Amino acid sequence: MGLKGILGFDYGIVQAPLGPDISGPELVAAVANAGGIGLLRCPDWECPDYLRELIRKTKTLTDKPFGIGVVLAFPHDLNIKAILEEKVAVLQLYWGDCSQELVDDAHRACVKVVPQVGNIEEARKAVAVGVDAIIVQGHEAGGHVIGKDGLFSLLPRVVDLVGGLDIPVIAAGGIVDARGYVAALSLGAQGVCLGTRFVATHESYAHPIYKRKLIEYEKTEYTDVFGRARWPGAPHRVLETPFFDDWRSLPADENEVNQPIIGRSTIHGVEKEIRRFSGTVPNMTTTGDLESMPMYASQSVGLIKEILPAGLVVKNLVEEAQLLILQKFKNAS
Fold first, then answer.
1. Selection from 177, 297, 301, 307 nearest residue 244 by Cα
2. Could you tell me which residues come within 8 angstroms of residue 102 by beta carbon, excluding any fewer than 6 positions away?
3. How far is 119 from 96, CA to CA, in rounded Å?
């Protein structure tokens, strides 16, 4: 067992695409410059010209390859066309059908396709259409969670499914440090994808209060309270804040549509009103009642003790994992 790069990158460490705009050019470039796979987050509406600007801005901050994540539950055809024309290294896909046509289009543009899956059936479909890697998301993950299986039960099943094919399997969900990285490697993963750990970095576009809450709080809850109208049927894991504790039993027939406006944000250049229960996490521009907004986090948030530079997160993962493998596993043999 050792650490290897994947998909042409130095390391098998992926920074998850953090919505709606938390993984912006600064964070993605910092991860890329450290040898990891940084992923921008595509807006949830068609805006190909803006997307080109976002990609080009990132290219001014790094000469290393990077990628972008697209949620297929939202309009995306024009955005994906722009992404392929800009020839980013990786197109990460989530919450929708990773079709043969889409994979073929990406490969013609020399873009690698990496879907994120939450069950074995999705993984089987991904293998069948010839994807370049698969991210396996466990139920422990923060943010929107597509499956019900824990990472340690689902991951080895996908590894066995892939078998000898040249399709790296990347583990996601509750991994924040080298111990999680090595545990995932021992189950057959070739890389890891971290979200919450990269929210709590200097370069992330999360509001400072959101970052601070990730250090202060230790408990999370899997719920569907937030964003029911905007993204139906999309459960998520959030910090157990006092606001969430008060509203965790929100009746199933209620959603954000008729709720009061509690704040405002500029998201991907567009000014937006934030209603209570809207599901929008606070970014650097957010004003209003931030304590009443969702703060997505994985079950391992209690292991995050400080806000760090993103490049140091990558460096620590690599060096501490190497040390752990050397001390715990080499000595055992």
1. 297
2. 80, 93, 113
3. 13
- Residue pair 132/113 in contact by the 8 Å Cβ criterion: yes
> What gap in Å lies between CA 54 and CA 21, rounded to an integer?
11
Q: Quick one: pLDDT at residue 4?
A: 78
Residue 41 corresponds to which tokens in the numbers above?
């987050």
User: Is 90 in contact with 111 (CB distance < 8 Å)?
Assistant: yes
Q: Which of 189, 156, 154, 185 lies closest to 170 in space, CA to CA? A: 189
In this structure, which topology does domain 7-332 adopt according to CATH?
TIM Barrel (3.20.20)
3-state secondary structure the chain: CCCCCCCCCCCCEEECCCCCCCCCHHHHHHHHHCCCEEEEECCCCCCHHHHHHHHHHHHHHCCCCCEEEEECCCCCHHHHHHHHHHCCCEEEEECCCCCHHHHHHHHHCCCEEEEEECCHHHHHHHHHCCCCCEEEECCCCCEECCCCCCHHHHHHHHHHHHCCCCCCEEEECCCCCHHHHHHHHHCCCCEEEECHHHHCECCCCECHHHHHHHHHCCCEEEECCCCCCCCCCCCEEEECCHHHHHHCCCCCCCCCCCCCEEEEEEECCEEEEEECCCCCCCECCCEECHHHCCCECCCCHHHCCCCECHHHHHHHHHHHHHHHHHHHHHCCC
pTM above 0.70, yes or no: yes
Side-chain-side CA neighbours of 286 within 13 Å: the count stands at 28
| Phi, psi angle pair for 220, to nearest 5° | -130, 165
Contact 102, 72 (CB under 8 A): no
Distance of alpha carbon 128 from alpha carbon 112, whole angstroms: 15
Q: Using CA atoms, how far apart are residues 93 and 333, in angstroms rounded to an integer? A: 40
| Residues ≥6 apart with Cβ < 8 Å to 258 | none
Q: What is the mean pLDDT of each run of 10 residues along the chain (333 residues)?
A: 79 97 98 98 98 98 98 98 98 96 98 98 98 98 97 98 96 98 96 98 98 98 98 97 97 96 98 97 98 98 98 97 87 57
